[in-house]
Write a structure and sequence with these properties.
heterodimer; B: six-stranded mixed beta sheet; five-stranded antiparallel beta sheet; 10 helices; disordered N terminus; binds adenosine-5'-triphosphate; binds magnesium ion
């Protein structure tokens, strides 16, 4: 077919340039509209990051470093000048890791149960899982605070209450993410594995898990991101502790050290480095095949 | 191989199903199936979509639990054995290759699960057998349908199962590739000498490949036998229509005289071989295949002793080259198809008045009272 249509197409192409030049302003706009919009969106999304990065080189001066004084590496050389801040980061990271692990394991198991089995309470549990995503965070936080006050008392609030609260809302997101991955999996693959002498454990280990793994990984990342920057629910359940988001919110009212911008920039850099690394590894693996 | 003993492989192991039944709620998908598949044979399970073929295979492989009945491999009852403990492998209807593993690992999967240490040689040999050794490092998603089908076959065959189950493995292929793969499959089966149970709804595929065909309809076996047996002596109207095409005429037995059964149908006297007619009195259905029937212009000479149906008119003529297919309407409104080999004879145009005739020994009789259209719709579906 191509061979037949190709010869008559040639003269048309030759005749096109003058015509194209005449339409050029409109055509140019049409061709570059996408580019323009893309650039604008990128600027919109990245500008705050750029400003934080730039401000992290501000010379620390007094309490509030909102205003540009002059270039300095002081904040970068001493990011933990404020001990409280780095302590709060450590706390947030520990909570994030524990909450992510618990929520991912729990959520993955719930997702399997919901997709694989039909049981009485199934639709009820589905609705329950949706609740933490739909309910306003303030309500959730207040409810949890009331619960903890009335069970373990105000003195018991701390690392574990925050972690329990985070697990609670992260689980919903994990379930939704893993469930969609599982539902898209061909059930005959597991039957084929059993037909090929794989016991149920081996079937899970060699077929189910590798196929669902990308979904679980995405769910874990999501859970970690949700936990690390949660403020509202955390405030209600933290007791005397201060997580990083709480520290920033508090410090904005007392002082704004340039070190906050350093930590912000570092987080951005680490995130991008991880993404870049996974891309490079993925490409290397596909190149080996 | 010690792993064979683990799977309970036995010598001389026929596959035997006894009263096998599967119900989903009140719906019976497989109904009291009894059959024996001799070891080393190529057995085809033929039936229309939804008649319970896949369900039967899944019960044999252990992926579905029968509601009733037993499954035997040789002298062993495997009904209660888990699928991963049965010396049975399946080529699935949609292949079900593992998308995250490359071709090599897909084929090696069964060996690895059984703890075979050195898989390199058997996998390489198996890939050579299906002529896809050069694709070992690819992922299933990077193969064509025909290649995937061959890998699915290799992945099952490498385990040398006692019985290999093939669930419409050629269904997704185009006609040309399908014919090619049919020959290939048959060659491989003869080469490895395993029992193949091949499920299909393509009657031509079943006839070309199988030693024995079981025609299945609504969860039951209608008839079982060699392709020639089923074609020449169908026992129900469903088989007569599903396997090839048949002209079926309802009539009444007039009498039996030695080897000859005399029947009246549409007011005309016809005869049948007694050996090919199970009915001795009352209602009967007389069948004859279109290629056994001849046409003659009204008034022309007809061989002595032939059955004849007079008063026909040609309503449709299709010249296919190798043969000509006619559709003739009788005075009573019945339609008869006739396939005439292209032997250089005159082609009858539509509108011609004709007599339809055939050698009485070519007809067959069926129990009366059956739906003469049963199974016929499936033929048209297949041809489309
Ligand atoms: N899990 C199930 N629950 C209820 N009914 C089922 C189930 N599995 C199969 N069936 C029904 O059982 C009947 C037989 O199904 P089966 O898959 O064996 O058909 P098949 O002969 O393989 O058809 P096809 O040629 O289309 O593959 C069908 O009518 C189907 O709807
Ligand atoms: Mg099927």
């Amino acid at each position: 077919m191509t061979a037949v249509t190709a010869p008559p197409a040639a003269p048309t192409t030759a005749a096109r340039p003058p015509e194209a030049r005449r339409r050029s302003p409109l055509a140019w706009a049409r061709e570059h509209l996408l580019l323009a919009v893309t650039v604008l969106i990128f600027v919109f999304m990245l500008l705050p990051n750029v400003i934080i990065f730039w401000m992290s080189f501000n010379q620390p001066q007094g309490k509030f470093d909102y205003v540009w004084h002059r270039f300095s590496l002081a904040a970068w050389q001493n990011p933990c000048a404020n001990g409280e801040m780095c302590h709060s980061i450590g706390l947030s990271l520990r909570i994030g890791v524990v909450a992510t692990i618990v929520a991912t394991v729990l959520g993955t198991m719930i997702a399997f149960a919901m997709v694989r089995y039909r049981f009485k309470a199934r639709s009820g549990i589905n609705a329950l899982l949706f609740l933490p995503m739909a309910a306003p965070e303030v309500v959730m936080g207040a409810t949890l605070a009331a619960l903890f006050f009335n069970t373990i008392g105000p003195g018991g609030l701390g690392f574990w209450t925050i972690t329990i609260a985070h697990v609670m809302f992260c689980v919903s997101y994990v379930v939704v993410t893993v469930k969609s991955r599982l539902a898209g999996m061909d059930p005959t693959l597991e039957r084929a594995a059993q037909d090929l002498y794989a016991t149920p454990t081996q079937t899970f280990r060699y077929v189910t898990l590798p196929l669902v793994a990308p979904g679980i990984a995405a769910a874990a990342l999501l859970a970690f991101a949700l936990s690390i920057d949660d403020y509202i629910v955390t405030v209600f359940t933290a007791g005397n502790l201060e997580t990083f988001p709480m520290y920033i919110w508090g410090s904005v009212q007392r002082a704004y050290p340039a070190q906050i911008d350093v930590i912000g920039s570092l987080m951005l850099i680490v995130t991008m480095a991880i993404i870049a690394l996974s891309q490079v590894l993925g490409r290397a693996r596909s190149a080996r095949r | 191989m010690s792993s064979n003993d683990v799977l309970g492989r036995t010598e001389g192991g026929d596959l035997r199903l006894a009263g096998l039944t599967k119900r989903y709620g009140s719906f019976t998908a497989v109904d009291d199936l009894d059959l024996t598949v001799p070891q080393g044979s190529f057995f085809a399970l033929l039936g229309a979509s939804g008649c319970g073929k896949t369900t039967t295979l899944r019960m044999v492989s252990g992926l579905e639990e029968p509601t009733a009945g037993r499954i035997f491999l040789g002298d062993q009852d495997v009904t209660d054995r888990k699928p991963y403990r049965r010396p049975v492998n399946t080529v699935f209807q949609n292949y079900a290759l593992f998308p995250h593993l490359d071709i090599y690992e897909n084929v090696a999967f069964g060996l690895r699960r059984r703890g075979v240490k050195d898989v390199k040689k058997p996998v390489t040999d198996m890939l050579d057998l299906v002529e896809l050794g050069h694709l070992a490092k690819r992922k299933p998603g990077q193969l064509s349908g025909g290649q995937q089908q061959r890998i699915a076959l290799a992945r099952a065959l490498i385990n040398q199962p006692q019985v290999l189950l093939l669930d419409e493995p050629l269904g997704a292929l185009d006609l040309k590739l399908r014919r090619q793969m049919q020959i290939e499959l048959k060659r491989i089966q003869l080469e490895v000498g395993l029992t193949f149970v091949h499920v299909t709804h393509d009657q031509e595929e079943a006839m070309t490949m199988a030693d024995t065909i079981a025609v299945m309809n609504a969860g039951r076996i209608e008839q079982m036998g060699s392709p020639a047996e089923l074609y020449e002596n169908p026992s129900t109207t469903f088989v007569a229509n599903f396997l090839g095409q048949s002209n079926l005429l309802t009539g009444t037995v007039e009498g039996v005289d030695g080897d000859v059964v005399t029947v009246t149908a549409h007011g005309q006297r016809l005869t049948l071989d007694a050996a090919r007619c199970p009915v001795r009195s009352g209602a009967v259905i007389l069948g004859v295949r279109p290629e056994k029937v001849h046409l003659a212009r009204t008034g022309a000479e007809i061989p002595a002793g032939h059955n004849r149906l007079t008063g026909g008119t040609v309503v449709d003529t299709s010249f296919i080259g190798v043969s000509t297919q006619y559709l003739v309407t009788l005075a009573t409104g019945e339609e008869v198809s006739v396939f005439e080999q292209n032997t250089g004879r005159e082609i009858q145009r539509p509108g011609t008045e004709v007599v339809v005739h055939w050698d009485p020994s070519q007809g067959f009789g069926l129990e009366g009272g059956q739906d003469i259209e049963a199974g016929a719709a499936d033929i048209e579906e297949d041809a489309a």
